[in-house]
Amino acid sequence: MSALPVIETFSSLQGESTHAGRRCFFIRLAQCNLRCNYCDTRYAWEGGELREISDLCAEAAASGMEIVEVTGGEPLIHPETPELIRALLQAGMEVLIETNGSRDISVLPYECRKIVDCKTPGSGMAEFNRWENFDVLSPHDEVKFVVSSPEDFHWSIEVIDRYKLFEKTAHLIFSPVWGRIGFEELAALVTGSCRPVRMQLQMHKLIWGDKKGV
Questions:
Q1: pLDDT in tens, 89-100
Q2: What is the DSSP letter of 2?
Q3: How far is CA 100 from CA 37, 52, 92, 144, in A?
Q4: Domain that holds residue 148
Q5: Whose CA is closest to 142, among 173, 104, 111?
Q6: How many domains does the chain have?
């Protein structure tokens, strides 16, 4: 089997998404093609240790966790990532993958749950959104909007309406950039939106703060 550059693997609680609070084994792949100005995993932009896919699957199975998430960096810059996802699924695991939305998600198996980060203007990376990804969303997939300001929020609502995302998935999630928009401010925007969306906070940061391996 192939190998992938890995920054870290660890067991923790899923801190985000509709799966927040579940026991999860994380595989954080190295390297990213974007440079979001609020990124909290800059240590994953470069480097990584090459790990065989078979070894990663064995470690995930041995962890005893309920789900596996493949994250980064940006997992889909590596052509071997779909092979890793297929191998984890074939081993009987429930698999999530978090992607920055700039790469084609159609290369991934239907069964894995794709968490697609739609880059808002506040990230500095909105020009890299691959809008075609919205055409291949599955009902169990999720779209995440990381919001720095009310302007980001209203931009995101326009995207949801333009692409009719509420017809493709019920999992449309708003997350605040820590230190840029208050929790109460974003909560008020979400409740007043008249859209089938939800708000999340990064549970792992609330529990452990801004640290690696959680």
A1: 999 999 999 999
A2: -
A3: 13, 24, 26, 9
A4: 3-208
A5: 173
A6: 1
Q: Does 122 fall in a domain?
A: yes
Exposure of 153 by Cβ count < 10 A (0-12 exposed, 13-18 middle, 19+ buried)?
buried
Phi/psi for 144 (5° steps) reads -115, 135
Burial of 26: CB neighbours in 10 Å, binned 0-12, 13-18, 19+: buried
Q: What is the spatial distance between Cα 182 and Cα 127, in angstroms, rounded to a whole number?
A: 25
pLDDT digits (tens, 9 = 90+) for 118-146: 999 999 999 999 999 999 999 999 999 99
Q: Mind listing the pLDDT tens digit for each residue in 12-44? A: 999 889 999 999 999 999 999 999 999 989 999
CATH of the domain at 138: 3.20.20.70
Q: 141 in a domain, yes or no?
A: yes
Q: Is 213 among the domain residues?
A: no
Q: In what order do the strands lie in the sheet with 3-13?
A: 49-52, 3-13, 23-29, 67-71, 94-99, 113-118, 142-147, 172-176, 198-199
119 phi and psi angles, rounded to 5 deg: -75, 120
Q: Which of 148, 194, 211 is nearest to 175 (CA)?
A: 148
- 0.70 cut: is pTM over it? yes
Selection from 123, 198, 124 nearest residue 160 by Cα: 198
Asked if residue 182 belongs to a domain, the reply is yes
Closest C-alpha to 73, from 109, 103, 112, 113: 103
Is the dihedral angle over the CA atoms 211, 212, 213, 214 positive or is it negative? Answer: positive
Residue 44's nearest CA partner among 8, 83, 81 is 8
Instruction: Give the per-residue pLDDT at 1.
Output: 66
